[in-house]
Amino acid sequence: MELIDGKKVSLAIQEEVAIEVRTLIANGGKQPHLAAILVGNDGGSETYVANKIKACERVGFKSTLLRLPGNVTEEKLLETIEQLNTNKDVDGFIVQLPLPKHINEHKVLEAVIPQKDVDGFHPVNVGRMVLDLPAYISATPFGIVQLLDKYNIPTAGKNCVVIGRSHIVGSPMSILLAKNAKVGNCTVTLCHSKTVDLKSHTLNADIIICALGKPEFLKADMVRQGAVVIDVGTTRVPSTESKTGFVLKGDVKFDEVSPKCSFITPVPGGVGPMTIASLIKNTLLAAKKEIYK
Q: I need a surface site. Which of 8, 42, 77, 216 has the fewest CB within 10 A?
């Protein structure tokens, strides 16, 4: 079993970006600028945004964090988005999820113009990805593709099961792995809450990508010997053994499953850091106007 070190790969990618940024600025180019909108004070969101700001500092980006209260109106949030849309100094920005229940998430994500949608959530970017056109690819699936590539994990002709059909991870992940690409050419099965006999699918899988948000859902009896397991889950579970009062659990019961795997991602330190690396790469593309000329 080999542990896939997402943190190590993420830092290596960020160093590559930092070198490119230094060259860009030395040649008279503009310093890339990433902005983030954070609504409320969700603990997980605070951590993610803080990590993104640190990554910006690491690679030489300018970063802006706009904080809005949890009771902000949808109208006010949309006004803030429009301000960033029209701000010529901001190359890309994100609206940190989840949002409060009184705000329409789809309406908000569609308000971000595709040219600055470095999270890759806008329907235009999703559609361009499906059609093999240049696009900002959703950061988590993009990060997983890079992990498989960096670890030289073969995908062509492999059976891949994606558990979870969210628009942010599961659905785009299934599309990317089915593409005729270096990391792709899988035979993909997309499983979800209505899948009958999920275990029969996972036991036939060479690669399993678990993106449900249910702690320790995937157990050893669901995984074949030698499988590659990518754990996308990060759920805060109460714990009396932690100073913070919680621990992060993935969707995979790691201690049970890992001995059967050829490769597996840990939680934390697996997919999470790659999401940030992908966001950084998308922002550099936005600054260089490489997707939308």
A: 8
